[in-house]
Amino acid sequence: MRSFNQLRQTRFGKRAAGEQSIRTRATRTVLSRGRVFRAVAFVALSLVAFIGLALSLGVPHLGRGHASLMAAEAVPPAQPAPPPQGYRPQFRDMVGINGGALRPDLMSAMKIGALRFAVSWDTVEPSRGQWNWTSTDGFIRGGAVQGYEMVPMLGYMARWAANGPNGSVPPKNLSDWTDYVTAVVARYSAAPYNVKYFQVWNEPTKAAGFWKGATDLQWVDVIYLPAARVIRDHGARVVFGGWPQNGPLPQLDAELQYRNAWQLTDIIDIHYFGLPAIQQIYAKWIATGKCKGIWETEVGNVNNPVFLTNLYSGMFNWAKARGNWTFPDQYKLFWYTGIGAGCSICLAQTGADGKTEALTANGQALQRLAQSLP
Q1: Is 32 buried (19+), middle (13-18) or exposed (0-12) by CB count in 10 A?
Q2: How far apart, in whole angstroms, are the C-alpha atoms of residue 42 and residue 374?
Q3: For residue 72, what are the contacts with CB-CB under 8 A and spacing of at least 6?
């Protein structure tokens, strides 16, 4: 301000004053324009900050066109973590056989991973309290050493314990049945056998002929639920008793719902149904989280390599694509039967000398399929 007053006292005061007036107006204009520029810059920076905040909070559509330009200079977003490396389905995990023969060379060629067999009550307890494990110990131990999933089937009634003329009737005393189940499960769920799955009975309906009690639901009360509780108490898993092909699926559903039997069922087992039935069971019991898996512990029983190939390949591909296959024992098909003398429906048969063995047409088909799948 001082320099501006001195200019007014010179002989060029008026001119200087005029020039000073012009400069003052110019200065004010510049200052005004500076304020405008700063205001515009502030608004622009605020807008950028607001858009960035909105984008970070996931506000849709806001500033989408301009945000894409700013994103080019921004730090690129972190890439999503790779999915966890979980279970990868293997054909061997799905393939099982029925029978009491261990032939590692033939079974390996067909990628057989599981073996179902009966632990006969009559054999291991020929009379009450007298136990004989000679025939079962070596067989189950041998399978465990070879890496097979050994699946004992519990049943039928011992003759001394049966309330009737055959083994498909209820026991005279329920405690005899639970004592047998407890002895088998306690022995074979522990080391060195380490059996994980125990199947309760086989085709437990009056129509199938393997249960001759008063009603089919009586089997659930007297046989299934007591045995399932014992199996669970020993930390093992329960396989339902092989629902027969002549039993309607709604009846199977009703038995699983009866007294909430499904809550003690890990694996639902059916016989000779095929993939359409498996898909129905999956939707009702597996996809809903009620049970863990589906097995067919009896399939085949025919000399038909094309049927065998289609059955196993169809099941394997469906389970991988649609069955949410998350652990090795979730889906299994057990061919009936595995190895026998002069047996065309088997996978392998014993020669006339009783020693040599060779794959049948069924076995050769399974071998070719196994070699083509992981």
Answers
A1: exposed
A2: 64
A3: none
Q: Residue 80 in contact with residue 119, Cβ under 8 Å?
A: no
Type of residue numbered 227: A
* Amino acid making up residue 130: Q
Tell me the per-residue pLDDT of 319-354, one tens digit each, with 9 for 90 and over.
Answer: 999 999 999 999 999 999 998 888 999 999 988 787
Q: Among residues 33, 111, 67, 92, which one has the least CA distance to residue 363?
A: 111
Q: Are 289 and 347 contacting, i.e. CB atoms less than 8 angstroms apart?
A: no
DSSP class per residue in 219-273: HIIIIIHHHHHHHHHTT-EEE---B-TTS-HHHHHHHHHGGGGGGG-SEEEEES-
List pLDDT tens digits, range 74-131: 334 333 334 345 899 999 999 999 987 889 999 999 999 999 999 999 999 999 999 9
Q: What's the burial of 288, exposed, middle or buried (CB within 10 Å: 0-12/13-18/19+)? A: exposed
Least confident of 10-19, 24-33, 170-179: 10-19
Cβ neighbours of residue 245 closer than 8 Å, sequence gap 6 or more: 270, 271, 272, 273
Q: Which residue has the tokens 């110019």?
A: 26
Residue 107 CA to residue 359 CA, distance in Å, equals: 10
- Asked if residue 120 lies in contact with residue 133, where contact means CB atoms within 8 angstroms, the answer is no
| C-beta separation of 121 from 180 below 8 A | yes
Contact 228, 265 (CB under 8 A): yes
3-state class (DSSP) for residue 156: coil
Please name every residue paired with 151 in a beta bridge, in sequence order, or none if there are none.
116
Q: At 10, is the pLDDT very low, low, confident or very high (cuts 50, 70, 90)?
A: very low
- Residue 64 pLDDT exceeds 80: no
CA terminus-to-terminus distance, the chain: 92
Average pLDDT over residues 258-266: 98
